[in-house]
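re the bet — no i am not wrong, look at it urself. input seq straight from the record:
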Amino acid sequence: MKNSLITFKLLTALATFSICVVTVTAQQAITKSARPVDEAAIRENVRQMEAGWNEKSGSRFAQPFAEDADYVVINGRFVQGREAIEKEHQHIFNTVFKNTTLRLLVKQIRFVRPDVAVVHVTGQRDTLENEKSLVAGAFMTLVMTREKQGWRIAAFQNTQIAAPRR
């Protein structure tokens, strides 16, 4: 009787373990198969920011951001919310950056959870002043979350790349 009870408990434990392994493996397979679609959506958000900058549209630039997004400007100033991000960018597009273009390149997408990604992007801003090209570079860290309406930027940190020392 004791052997039967021990055998039953071992088989129950083994079955439970097997179900857990199968469930985790299935979830990982689903996550991995969804990654190319998720990565494409994330890259599209970065392309939309670039297009918004180059079109001088604060609205288009801010569209990929979550409604309550946090944005740390290259000078360290903190802006919160998509509406504020849109207004701030429209202001700079109309003034100091009206003659600029921006090129963004996604360097890395790392999924910390299936619905959260840390995205590293490099940026190159070109300015034409008196027919001289001034180039400024930046490194950006985006925390993106998958929401009902798609991937959104929840947090954005913009850091200027220092010129190499000579």
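see?? The chain has a mean pLDDT of 84. told u. also The first strand starts at residue 65 and ends at 72. so pay up
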